[in-house]
Recover the amino acids of this structure.
């Protein structure tokens, strides 16, 4: 009869100690669990923090253990790997990171990737086949639109989209039109949309999806939650199946790494794991270690940036050279966007759209005269960043589509950091003098 170690595939003496999630009846919060969840110091010489495990492969205790590990890795046995096998499949740093990422949205599973786009690409490749149709909200991050329209389009995969603020009826109509074209492989959302900050009604999408498909034929709903998650939005609670993250942004938070993540339902992420095992899009151990460091201060950084954004946007909205400010804290009471915000979000975030009076000339003048804020793409870092989406991140988007989606030449996207808010206001005031 096999002993317990042989059944599990992991020797009992080597299993990590279970991390606490509660003290008595008191449930611990994610920001507290970020300090040690998923890591047992006893397995790393008593080290308080996980070391970086720079190894390509792992030694098996016995040949039987090796066989069992590979049965899980290859899918011959459900449940995945019982231990560490090879660094294209898993590693200690990645597994600790994935355990902690699940906590923010109370997700069943989490996977990490070498970039946000490798997470998105691996997700789409897992579920999409020639002849399929992807339904998505618009706009999306330009590279995501490129992946769907240009790259997957080469393999006979098509798409239909609806505007971010669409009603349930409008979403249902697009889903019906997509069903007439082929098998709907996925419903892919981005909320708030990049760079317009428009919100998607995830609950309406879920209701439309469930009404259009039988229980055993429903395509997964995935949503890019980078702009507000995981602190200010938790779309799994509104009916999404998978939350997508560019961990480069708020999760990393220091503009010094590139990474991606998926959190959500195990039944959808298990096949994505198999795809990741095959094509090798897993995150490297050093970057995983850096993210573990960053997650410890995620709540502090996002909270400070959010507080700064309120002050900065209050200043900008009344400036004579500003046409409008696309900030979620300024949504018109009673509007559909405000209704979605109240149901879906706990904060307005720190990334917003600034529409200047004029066009590209005025936008460039503003950007070229910033002192504290940096002229750079990306968002969610400790420093304030500003860019011109129409001329930079969304340059590849056709002009007519940019106009339809509100990505105009006078649009500046700003991500507020953790600097002093009064200093940032002084910086923007000075830059606006040049407009």
């Amino acid at each position: 009869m096999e002993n317990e170690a042989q059944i599990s595939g992991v020797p009992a003496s080597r299993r990590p100690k279970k991390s606490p999630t509660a003290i008595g009846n008191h449930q611990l919060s994610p920001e507290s669990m970020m300090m040690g969840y998923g890591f047992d110091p006893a397995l790393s010489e008593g080290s308080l923090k996980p070391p970086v495990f720079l190894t390509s492969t792992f030694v098996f205790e016995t040949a039987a253990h090796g066989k069992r590990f590979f049965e899980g890795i290859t899918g011959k046995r459900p449940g995945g790997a019982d231990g560490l096998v090879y660094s294209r499949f898993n590693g200690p740093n990645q597994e600790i990171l994935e355990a902690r990422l699940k906590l923010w949205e109370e997700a069943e599973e989490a996977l990490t990737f070498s970039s946000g786009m490798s997470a998105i690409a691996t997700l789409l490749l897992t579920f999409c086949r020639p002849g399929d149709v992807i339904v998505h909200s618009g706009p999306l991050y330009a590279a995501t639109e490129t992946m769907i329209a240009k790259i997957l389009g080469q393999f006979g995969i098509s798409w239909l989209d609806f505007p971010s603020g669409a009603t349930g009826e409008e979403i249902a109509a697009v889903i019906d039109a997509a069903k007439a074209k082929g098998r709907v492989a996925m419903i892919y959302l981005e909320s708030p949309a990049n760079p317009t900050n428009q919100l998607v009604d995830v609950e309406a999408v879920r209701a439309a999806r469930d009404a259009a498909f039988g229980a055993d034929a429903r395509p997964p709903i995935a949503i890019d939650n980078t702009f507000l998650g995981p602190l200010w939005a938790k779309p799994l609670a509104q009916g999404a199946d998978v939350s997508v993250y560019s961990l480069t942004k708020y999760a990393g938070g220091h503009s010094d790494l590139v990474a991606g993540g998926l959190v959500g339902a195990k039944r959808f992420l298990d096949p994505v794991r198999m795809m990741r095992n095959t094509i090798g899009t897993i995150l490297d151990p050093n970057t995983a270690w850096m993210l573990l460091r960053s997650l410890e201060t995620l709540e502090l950084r996002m909270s400070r940036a959010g507080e700064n954004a309120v002050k900065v946007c209050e200043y900008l909205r009344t400036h004579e050279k500003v046409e409008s400010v696309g900030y979620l804290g300024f949504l018109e009471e009673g509007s559909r966007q405000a209704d979605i915000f109240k149901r879906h979000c706990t904060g307005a975030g720190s990334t917003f759209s600034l529409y200047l009076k004029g066009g590209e000339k005025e936008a460039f003048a503003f950007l070229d005269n910033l002192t504290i804020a940096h002229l750079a793409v990306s968002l969610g870092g400790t420093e304030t960043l500003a860019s011109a989406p129409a001329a930079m991140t969304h340059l590849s988007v056709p002009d007519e589509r940019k106009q339809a989606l509100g990505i105009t030449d006078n649009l500046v996207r700003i991500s507020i950091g953790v600097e002093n808010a009064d200093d940032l206001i002084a910086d923007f005031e000075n830059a606006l003098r040049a407009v």
